Fold each of these.
Amino acid sequence: MLSKEDVLKIAKLSKLEFEENEIEKFRTDLNKILEHMEELNSIDTSDIEPLFNVLDLKDRLRKDEVKESYIKKELLENAPEKDGDFIIVPKIVGNENTDN
Amino acid sequence: MELYKKTASEITEMIKNKEITSKEVTKYFLDRINLLEKKIGAFSNVLKEKSMESAEIYDNDNSEEKRKNYDSDLLFGVPVALKDNILSKGDLTTASSRILKNYKGIYDATVVERLKKAGVPLIGKANMDEFAMGSSNENSAIKPVSNPWDLSRVPGGSSGGSAAAVAAGQVPIALGTDTGGSIRQPASLTGTVGIKPTYGRVSRYGLIAFGSSLDQIGALAKSTEDLARIMQIIAGYDEKDPTTADVEVPNYLENINKDIKGLKIGLPKEYYTDELDENIKKVIDKAVKELEETGAEVREVSLPYTKYAISTYYIISSAEAASNLSRYDGVRYGVRGNNENIEDMYVESRSEGFGSEVKRRIMIGNYVLSSGFYDAYYKKASQVRRLIKNDFERVLEEVDIILIPTSPTTAFKKGEKNNDPMQMYLADIYTVSVNMAGLPAISVPAGFVNGLPVGIQMIGNYFKEDLLFNVSNVYEKKRGQIEYPEL
């Protein structure tokens, strides 16, 4: 069973924040969902290779040739804050970002 | 003229024969969108001017000679709606999420590029469950969509806008995406035909990702022939998407009327238990009987592991979603939280931008991927996924297609399952296993229960969309014309 602390920890990993009243709702919902998922424990999968992708694809290589790509101007059109050719973000260096 | 009752195929032929122009058709559907949009809410963005401009160009090119300059003339001049998670250059594409409310595509998705090269005007972006997460279309950040058969009910999700738009006759044909049933379930609930192709059959380049190993672009329409036409245009290898399959695309229309005598249909016993709604079972029994009358042979088969599909699906899809949605941090695009500290800016952008269902999936995803729980959940689910795929492969050696219900219920009331995510997830119980295995499947309207449509689902072997089109088309002819909703 997930505790309130567990929910807060996953929220932090997910870079999400919740109101106090939402936390309990999430805890209840997540526990109900995870409880349902427990049914998988009844299956013996000891010799089974996990399947991550249904197509048996091998790595594909493309030709190493110069092609036109998207230009900065168009990419920058969707940027929330910009200055000329640059995207502005809050200061990173020197701030105490302790997430690492 | 009641153009909304015509199929995309019929309208294409009318345009080619110059009985009507693409501009007239596009204008007709723009007017109908306008007329019904308040009731249905199927669109997040209507491309009024652009679609008319394209239609004019195609009208000028509507001669046998000039149509040869296009890659295909199978839907020439017929407007198509795109689900709001498929990028088109210069057009607002939001995945019906607040976090992308200002986002404009800076390039065309491969499917869009192919539609444009086939002379298809794009009429707008269809409303959807945010980031394609949902089974009712109540999770759109824009507005909920109503089912044209009963406006108090949901159209299904997440391609609910595409399905409702086709059912209401706001557009003849629409593209959708299917990660766990998001084309087939709304098709069933709105009385439309919908196909989820084999994983890798259609390029995902330019699709806003949800669960990358499961997502597939497909379409919804009024007839199987319409689906065959649009799939002919969009299917096939794309060097921009290394997960597309380099497998030849057959001519889907060539054998669509072929006799299905001797076709082997498997009915998996796990799907026909006492739990299946009796009225839905009656509709399916009738469809099976009709298929038998056209020469098919029916036998019982078994898919024992599919009962674990919902759990497996929600672990895998949420894990992939958590990973895919980590790119929304407010830095390069999307809505940005107003904070001076970068870490807090990420958190604020995401917390304000995502709706609660999306947050729930991100939370599940990060939990099942976190160290200590990876083996118990994600690895375990990926192992069970192989067992589910093995089940299908074994059965599809015995039979040509598998026939099951598409949805356990008809369209449910808005709000009915909103407070219980597990109940909502179970709405996809008959569709998710197909995505786990990557197989193609089609949902075809088979009848009504209390005035609400019921679909049957046919699952085929890898890259056998042509057989699905054949069986579905033969069945449609046998079943006869179905009604239209009164609006």
Amino acid sequence: MKPAPFIYHRPKTVEDAVALLAEVAPLDGRILAGGQSLIPMMALRLAYPAHLVDINGVAGIDRIVVEDGELVIGALARHARFEKPVEPGPTGQLLAQVCHNIAHFPIRSRGTFCGSLANADPASEWCLVAATLGAKLVARSEAGTRILAPRDFFQGIMTTGLAPEEMLVEVRLPMLPSDAKFGFYEFSRRAGDFALASSLTAFRVENGVIAAPLVGVGGAEAHPRRIPEAEHALLGQQATMATFERAAQAAAIAIDPLEDAATNAGYRRDLVRTVVRRALELAISQSERPQ
Amino acid sequence: MSDKVDITLTINGAPHAISVAPRKTLVDAIRDDCGRTGTHIGCEHGVCGACTVIIDGETVRSCLMFAVQADGCEIRTVEGLATSDKLHPLQASFIKHHALQCGFCTPGFLMLAAGAIERNPDMSDDELIEVLSSNLCRCTGYENIVKAVRAAMLEMQAA
Ligand SMILES: Cc1cc2nc3c(=O)[nH]c(=O)nc-3n(C[C@H](O)[C@H](O)[C@H](O)COP(=O)(O)OP(=O)(O)OC[C@H]3O[C@@H](n4cnc5c(N)ncnc54)[C@H](O)[C@@H]3O)c2cc1C
Ligand code: FES
Ligand code: FES
């Protein structure tokens, strides 16, 4: 189908974008970033915004830089930029691995990291990364700038803490320490499809035991989040298959699974157990491989 | 401004001065307003890849952009692959390896492959399959498409 009519705006600066958004948000206006979620929704007439504020002409917001131990990702940084590591440490490698699971090459050349977060699909890989690593989400409006933590940002299925007149101007990802091990695993029915469940894990091994474990689960609940029960099962334990199985089991019990006609709660829990265990196993097996 | 906007789409080097409503997708403008019907429309929501074109060097779905967004950009479509007397190596390879039947998906696959090879002229088999998994073909099946693209890539490397 064809998208419904809208009024098109093309600001050149963030200030103008935010000023326009203040004006058109009450009239059902929204930002157009990569358009790889919004335009399909408009074509399917699931969305028919009256105004679009296209940020593709805004200069200087496509940056990906390391600043104060954080990876700063601007609003127009497209998925494809992450296909090769954006920095040499584990964070760059992790993002590159995750990136290949997002849609397909032509969609990755337009879709943006920040657009994925603003879109907040429960199965979005970048949402899982942001939730697991504890991203700072920087929202700007005419009233000023505020920084949201994942727990305040991700509120439900395609629902965020952004106000309609706020633009997500950048995301600041805390970087993993250089000796961090990480693993990402997702299950989807076809290559490039949204995941039915996914997991991102990271930890360090200190004096033979697991330190600073992070276990995130995506695609299984209304939004991705860290699972404290699974992290607790890892902390201070040896990195063995038995430990991983206990953590995976804890995650499967802790989640509040999404259900649909093809995926009942029991199946979703089984998937979560499997993706968490495999992500943890990958964290160990990948770090044994020479880089 | 939901009224028509004057824009210029440069398709395979030729400028087209057109006037479009903002809601018109790029693929519709390429076909209806510029008369370049080589680019096909399948699903209109990003899934099939029939509409794949190359814009300023990036391989994209032209159903997932509005025409107004491509104002002033260099757009390459399937019509730009062959030169006056010679098919592009990908096109010749598709014929040789029987990589099409009805041909509906073919322009999209050709532009997908052309864009991917330009970005990485030496893709591994896994990378090639990852790239080609993005588009759908309902009749030929994928084996011959993979074969054709692999052969063309090797030929382009040798050239
Ligand atoms: C065939 C197909 C397969 C896909 N598969 C996957 C997949 O496996 N995994 C996955 O994660 N995604 C997938 N996607 C979606 C893709 O990753 C999108 O690029 C992404 O979800 C949205 O980013 P965007 O930049 O395209 O945003 P847009 O589509 O432009 O916008 C999406 C929403 O976010 C809002 N928005 C965007 N940027 C901002 C901002 N800076 N501030 C405030 N609001 C903003 C918009 O107003 C809109 O409501 C797929 C898409 C397609 C077409
Ligand atoms: S028509 Fe564009 S992807 Fe199907
Ligand atoms: S050749 Fe018919 S759809 Fe591909």
Amino acid sequence: MNTNCSDITQNYYRVDKLPHIWCPGCGHGTLVNTVVRAIDKLGLNKDEVVIVSGIGCSSRAPGYLDFNTLHTTHGRALAFATGIKHANPKLHVIVIMGDGDSSAIGGNHLIHAARRNIDITTIVFNNNIYGMTGGQYSPTTPYGDFATTAPYGNIDKPFDLCNLAKGAGATYVGRGTAYHAPLMQKLIENGLQNKGFSFIEGISLCPTYYGRKNKKGDVVNMHNFLKDNCVDKKVVDKVPEKGENKIIIGELYKEPKPEYTESYKVIIDKFQE
Amino acid sequence: MSSEKGYKLLQGNEACVEGALAAGMKFFAGYPITPSTEVMELSAQKLPQYGGKFIQMEDEIASMAAIIGASLTGLKSMTATSGPGFSLKQENFGYAVMSEVPCVVVNVQRGGPSTGLPTSPAQGEIMQAKWGTHGDHPVIALTPGSVQETYEMTIEAFNLAEKYRTPVIMLMDETIGHMREKLIFKDPSDIKIENRKKPNCKPEEYLAYKADEDMIPPMANFGEGYRYHVTGLTHDETGFPTNNNEISGELIKRLSNKVNNNIDDIAYYEEYKLEDAEIVVIAFGGVSRSAKSAIDEMRSQGMKIGLFRPITIWPFLETQINSVADKAKEIYVAEMNLGQYFYEVDRVAGKKCPVKKINKVNGELITPKEIIDAVKGGK
């Protein structure tokens, strides 16, 4: 395990690809770092880690990381990842997607990957907006908020991505934020250790589009919002009223079920000639 | 490897699976759609018996994505679909072209457009096979004309995919997919198997998209110690995105040339009674069966007529069609569409002799009589 920041960078980043493309104040860099630190903490072999993404700001992450990396088509990261994991279950498959990527164009793949309980760790960098295309509303943009395609306020109702994943069959669900980086790292570690479909939402922030359009103040203000409005599930479990009108973070759901590639191996073992 | 021996009475769709297994298929992802579904069902049954993997995905888009992922992880992979499903696969098909991932895509054609005629034969995706995804790109597509040939050409489809690092289309039609004929299995020792070229450099020296002189880059599989980046974006030799105009243009040209400069290696076709033929019928897939019957009939009446049957439908057999046109006085292109392959033939042969269309799009086969009537009527 590397605790030193520069060791982490040297060991896990493709340093020649830095600096990254994300805007100043974007939460994605912090979230990527929590992914890397979780991998480091668990001591995973770099050759056995595959990181897959779709399209969008979040999905440029794998390019900076020194693993087997795959930047796929919009929304389809989980379908590519399913092929990889099913083909070689020894690999640790991590999928990084954005909110639109995972729940709009890729929503169907998300619910079916969760339903199969295939051992993939999915991390959604949710910044509540389409950043790369310039600030259109996404399935997680809050009701009433503004976006370039919601100039009069958004009337779409937002998804709770964690509830969606849980309802579809994910066996590990957690939510962290770019502000709560140590928690985020821990959730990813737990997700990587869960033998099944793990879903971790990382609330990110997009000061350039979402923040500016919705007068959320500067980056410090946006971080302070996360700090003041998030409550850990462990706290809410003890004192429910502390969770009222707050964003619940932490480990939200954990329930082991048979994993897809292990179930398929039983078939191969039984029927292989 | 498939352990089937001897012979069996099988459908074209089943023969396709047997060929795939003989070629080393170890992964199939798909979504059921008529008339291709038997390819999927038999794959589900047989793959685990050979230590392979099958998965029924949530849709055709996901199936195409999954076989790309599996191929990058080292397994020879295939998906099968029909009409609307083929449309859905197109974006990720383009991804496989751009990222040079070998795989086989079976399209058992049905009537279209849209949901069209699900249980009827058609040959409406000749042009979609070539230009279905966006951008300029190469395509290898094979159109078998019998159950035996479906088996043999599926083996070849895998070989071409591995050799040229590209998706290969098995462009069948419902007639061939659902027809039952005797299939004679090849002895495994008689089957030539191509495998993707592997890097022989150290992992830290590996440039994932640096092509050799043959225009094909060696390919490492995920998990083998060569950590590299794969993207659908225009990329340089390292595999990372680039906006450099020169590099971008060279990449797209290389992708095209690695296929189009090797047409002789990819060209499969049959010439039937063509030696002294003055009239040539060009037909492929199910229609070629009617064409042969029509030609036999007209030969018995003393007409000098023969068949040129493309098996490789893409890349276009320009040299072969050219030499057919050199000798022919008249060419008929018979196909179950309104004239898709015709225009390619006409482009090459049209200045040398008249090229005429015989078409049908009502979900029925073109009969031998219709070919005879068209040829005699055209005189």
